[in-house]
Design brief:
By secondary structure, this protein is of the alpha+beta class. The protein has one domain. Helix content is about 25%, strand content about 20%. It has 4 helices and 6 strands. Strands 1-5-4-3-6-2 form a 6-stranded mixed β-sheet, with helices on one face.
Length: about 140
């Protein structure tokens, strides 16, 4: 089983209140150790550098970041993606400590990103669904 620790990634300390769809910003802030506001601003700034498709225009750090934006941000900062599922292959890796490597990870789930640090989920809620949640892939920092 995987452990859980409540962590808002510094969102409250940055002065943000209420609920938001900011899992991308939170997960990146937690896994990288960067201040929430720094990640928030960087994700919103990166949006302006990209070709403005409908998905990119609707992207915002508070309400949801489009995958191309956060992928490029993470890659530019030395993070690499490891896919754990292929189209039609079914789920091979679940959100469980014994199925993920140790270290600091950002796990991509269905409609959610969460930080996993040494086998413990760090998020505002437990997205593991009792260990049955499928992990589509994870980001890790290259040494």
């Amino acid at each position: 089983m995987i452990g859980f620790q409540f962590d808002d990634g510094g969102r409250a300390a940055a002065g943000f209140k209420g609920s938001a769809g900011d899992c991308v910003c939170r997960a990146i802030a937690i896994a990288t150790g960067l201040p929430y506001q720094t990640v928030y601003d960087a994700l919103n700034a990166r949006k302006t550098l990209m070709r403005q498709t409908k998905r990119i225009r609707g992207s915002a750090a508070r309400t949801g970041v489009a995958r191309p934006i956060y992928e490029r941000y993470l890659e530019a900062n030395g993070w690499r993606f490891v896919p754990t599922m292929q189209i039609g292959s079914g789920c091979k890796v679940h959100l469980r400590a014994n199925e993920l490597p140790t270290g600091r990870l950002i796990c991509r789930l269905s409609r959610h990103l969460t930080a996993v640090i040494d086998g413990d989920i760090h998020d505002t809620h437990d997205p593991s669904r009792g260990g049955s949640r499928c992990v589509y892939g994870y980001y890790y920092k290259e040494a």
